Structure formats: structure tokens, C-alpha cells
């Protein structure tokens, strides 16, 4: 855009914006509130995007383009306004126009709520995949739940997590379109009877409880292209709203109960990350978005295909994100057989061809299994179909591998009184994949080895990726500008082009600019920390950051114990030579995960002690930032020097914050786990610091024993001291972390924290040495960015497209 074009656009924008403000607020610009200024801007942007949306949908329908649908119980999309503006290439026009109008663009953006419709990695991955699909001009859509309350807001009060409801819809949400005309009915409970109608057996669902599923669509706009895909989120409502007859008969409470029971389905997101919560309401949620989504997809397909489902399996990809949407298999079978009149074999072929499944965890406690009784009662027809899928599967296995009856039956979808959702997903999908190389290997060799032997061709691996538009271009605009001026703009469309940075790997002028940007980002975070928790931190210190859900396997505890040890060292020798450090944590604990909450409490207790001790003041600080969400993440990654990725090897399927940190030039301090391994391969051993047990060693100890944490404790006085401090009152009057002590000693340290302590402490020393050589550190940092192309979600989507959905 040349300058006169820009001027014309700005004038047009300003005129439209002033009109919009009047329209949404009934006030003129000068008298409008910041909220109204935000709403007007959001509406203006939506007007532009919806016009493009309508156009592309017409094209998709006309050409019967192959469509992908991600079914996921979480979509952690983050704030959208700025991304939309970037994607329609209006950033400069809007920024300059608002400034000329005397408005505060940053404050306007702050008005947007950050929808917490996910817990962590799983939901955020879906948002990155939607962003990448749209950026690549690929028709891929999301299908999930419009939770009225997203993930709780976390406050830290007296060092402890307190949960507050997340009322993200309180001011309305400008980026969704409610489509009541596309509502569908979801049926629960009741009974099934079969009838012979015109010579064929027909199943009829009676006495069911109907719930109305109403879709809300959010546009997913591609970066600088014509594509607009859709994220469809379903809201549960009672049929015909309030039950007036009942109400009129005076049964007021009953009428209200009916309404609120219906609405409860989409009321709240379960706050568990990688953990299974076998509640009836969760099962209702899982069926709810699966049933509503599939019904609409089938009817839309028929509308463009002469009212027939022919070819559905070739034209439609239903992607099952973890096992929460595992009922896609039986539900699609139900629709194709009971509603479309197909026979079992035709319906089965179509279903398997349409479905693919990504597994995201090997933690046994996260694998979903539903009691037969619960499922049979709530979803009688679905359960019937699962039984039949299983019966046929076992029959085929017995026929193919007659000498393996015991193994065959161990693969049963239904066993021990439960329905195994991972097994259901594998049997009903033509493709199964893990999310990093190591993870996929564990799936093949351990977790799903029995299935791998039966269907080796179904197993794939696609390493996760993250959106460079969100986590580099949007969150680190200064770095974006430096990259553009140094290596041109091709990297914006193809992140592998960042390799061109190797031309600058020894360039002192580039180093200077790069360091200045990192420092400015650190100042920004330091400012946020002061504003929010009144702790002042030194932007020249190492920003050593661990932000993610709090979980034993992610081992925030290892980090915390090491901080305590470092503090002890500094107390013994206040002149200890070390680069000053700021240890930063953020992350939520599931409300019922008491051990994780104790870890938060421990970190805050250590922080309080360290930050108030004058002898260590200029050497170390510890910070726990409340309410980690996408918006806070965008401030944190660009400012990081060290990215803590220290999970017990074999436990973290992939991790994605490791990629976001790397893209912003942080050095990974990590175990050989998940995608850390691929990061290490990409950057080479001199640009990462790894430590600790390998996954093979962890498996070996878990299988054959041989690790006794008490031995480590007895041999290492550093550990003894730290462990005693957990329970002797050092961390504050009345503060006692016995549960943590017991887990590490009495229960033999199930996540190998003490076992890896020494290696971690050595690795931390290496970080210190490296950082103190400024040139080496900057070189490492730039090398990390240069190699981050492989961790763009654009690459992941291209892999899915080629290997799994087979889209040209
Ligand atoms: O999914 C991420 C992985 C990460 C894994 C995470 C995840 C959840 O956030 C929730 C449930 C689940 O089964 C897995 O823990 O390692 O990077 C995206 O694949």
C-alpha cells in the first residue's frame, strides 16, 4: 500500500468508525466510553470479515471443497480483535487513525475478554491449527462447546490459589453470530425399540430428554488472504425456552430446574488438564457437541450433494482431538444408518474413511473410560452401536489371529465394566497419530502396541506446532520488524525462511539490535510484574521462566527445590559469582488437585522469603504471576531468556510452550522429553541445555524398580537441607509442606524429582556460565529463532494435510 492509498483508507476508516461509535453507543466519539470504542471497532472489523466469509462459503459450496472439521472439547482462541486487524492487513491504518482521533488503542484492546474455553496445551493447539489452516487457505473448521463460563480466573491470596468464575460473556461477544435456524436436537436417556419397517430393521428412540443445541459461529480469518473458516461452538438450551405450562401450573421450581438442567450442559468448562473426570455432566457434554456437530455437517453435505450422503467419506474429514469426541464414530454410524438408511457395511466404510484421531497423552490417569451403566442409560442407542462395533472388531481379530485370543480380547473396546474411549477412537478411525516423535513411538511400542500390531498402517506422527502470527508477529512486534528489515518478509508466509538469520549469526550490529529488543521486552514484563504484584525485578537479570499448568509430571517442584538450594548457597556465600536471576512462574492448578495447589503455595512461600531477604536481593527474585492465560502468555514469551521444560522424560506428550519460547529466542533448559528432543535436534547440542533421565531409564525404573529416593536423600546434604526446610518452619510461621516431603520420600518420588536434582543443578550452572558470556548467549538465542521454522503450526497442518487428510 503506498502512502496515498493509505491516506484514503485512513480517511474512510475514520469516517466509518465515528459512525459506528454513534451507532453502538448513542454518543459521539468524544463522549463514548472505552468499552464502546472497543465494541465499535470490533463491529467494524466484523463487518469487513463477514462479507469475505459469505463469499468464501459460496465458493466452498459451489466447488464442494473437501472440508476438515476439528472436533475438540476445548478451543483456547485468545483475544481476536488485533489478530483480525493484522490478518485483514489494516494494522497500520487502524493504529494511525486511532492515534489521530486521540484514542488509546492499547486501552481499547484491553476491553476484549480473553475467552478461556480451554485448559492449556490441548485447546491452544486447536486455536493454532485453525489459525494455520486459514493462513494456508485450507478449509478447516472447529466444532466445540460455547461454555458460558470458561476456565476459572486464578487469584493468589496469601500465597494460595483462589478460583473466581470467568464470566467472559458479561459484555457480550462481538465476534460470534448466533444461528438459531441451525439448531438441532440432542437426545439423552429413553429407550430404543426396533421395528421392521418395509422389510428392514429400524431403531426408534423413545421417551428421551431433548436438549436444543444452538450454534454460535466465530470467523477464523486467514493472514493476508481471502480465506475465512468457521469455529462453531454449541450452546445448550431448553426446547422452547422456559416451560410455561409447568410454570403456570405453579410448579415454579420444577420449571426452573428443567431450564437450568438443560443449560448446565454448556455452563462450564471442566478445569482439568490431562486428567479424567468421570462425571455424568462431562459425558453429556461430550455427546452434545459430537451429535450436534455431526448432524449439521451431514445435512450441510447433503444440501450440496443432491440430498445424498454419497462420497461423504472422501469429502469430509472429522478429526477427533483427544478422546473427548470419541463418540464421533458411533454417532456418525447412527446418523448414517438410522437417519440416512445405510446398511452397516456402507456406513462403516464411510465412517472410518472420514475419521482420524490424535492422541495427546500417555498418562494412564488421563485415558478416558466410561462405566457401561452410565453410558447405556444416558445414550442407549450409542451404547448399542459401540457394542456392535466391538463385537465385529473382536470377531475379525479372532478370525485373523486365531492363536492370539487373549491379546485380541485385551483390545476390546468394552472391558472391566467400562467403555475405553481411546480404543473406540482407534477402531473407528483410519489414522491415529501422536504429537511428537517420542510420543508417537511410545504409542506404538507401549500404550497402543496391541493396536499397532493389528493396524500398523494407521499409525502416524505429527509433531505439534504453534502459530508464528500469534506468538511472534503479534506478541513480539519489535522482533518482527527487525526480522523484516534483516531477512525480508518471506518468513511471514514460510517460517523455514528464518534460517536466513544464519547470515547474521556473527554480526555485531544485528546482535546489538537483537539484545536491545529482548531488553525492551523484559522491561515491559518487569513493569507488568511491578504493577500487578508490586515486586521490582531487574530486567538485566536472567529471566528464567516456567509457565504451564501446575502438575507433578511437569515438575515445577524440581525448579522450586533448586531455587531453595540456590538461596541456601547465596546465604552461605553472599559473594557467590552468578548472573542475577529472576525466576518466573505462572500456571493454574485444577481446583481439586490439592498437591498442585500445595506446589503453588510452596513457590509463593519461597518467593516471599527470597524477595524479602536483603542479603540476596540483587542476585535473585522469585515471582508467581496469577491467572496465566493467552494474553499474559503473549507478554511473557518475548521476554524470556530461559525456557524451563523439565517434565519427567516420557510424560509430556509434546509441549508447545517450548516452541513459543524458542521462537522468541529463549534457550531451552529441558529434559529429553516430548518435542524438546526435536528442538534439540534442530538447534544442535550447543544451543540447548539438556539434562536428566531419559524416557527409557524412567520406564526401566517404573517397570523393574531400582530407584529409592531415600538413598538420594541420604547421600546428598544439599537435598537433605532443602527437604528439611519444607517442614521446619523456614518457609514461614505455620507453613509446613509435609505432603510434598512425603511424596518425595515416603512415596518414593514418583516423578524422579530427587533423582534428577543433581543433573538439573549442573544444567542450571551451565546456563549461568553461558549467560555470563553475552555473545555466546545472543548467538544461541538467534540460532534458536533461526531453527524454529519446523515448529510453526503451518508445518504441522501441512503434515496433517498430506499424510492424514490427504488433501491436495
Ligand atoms: O496437549 C498438548 C501437548 C501436551 C499435552 C496436552 C494435553 C492437554 O492439554 C490436555 C489433555 C491431554 O490429553 C493433553 O499434555 O504435552 O503438547 C497438545 O498436544
Automatic annotation (TrEMBL):
SUPFAM superfamilies xrefs: UDP-Glycosyltransferase/glycogen phosphorylase
CC cofactor: pyridoxal 5'-phosphate
Pfam families the UniProt entry points to: Phosphorylase
Entry's family note: Belongs to the glycogen phosphorylase family.
Originating organism: Acetobacterium tundrae
Gene3D superfamilies per UniProt: Glycogen Phosphorylase B
Protein name: Alpha-1,4 glucan phosphorylase
Reactions that this protein is recorded to catalyse: [(1->4)-alpha-D-glucosyl](n) + phosphate = [(1->4)-alpha-D-glucosyl](n-1) + alpha-D-glucose 1-phosphate
PROSITE patterns (UniProt xref): PHOSPHORYLASE
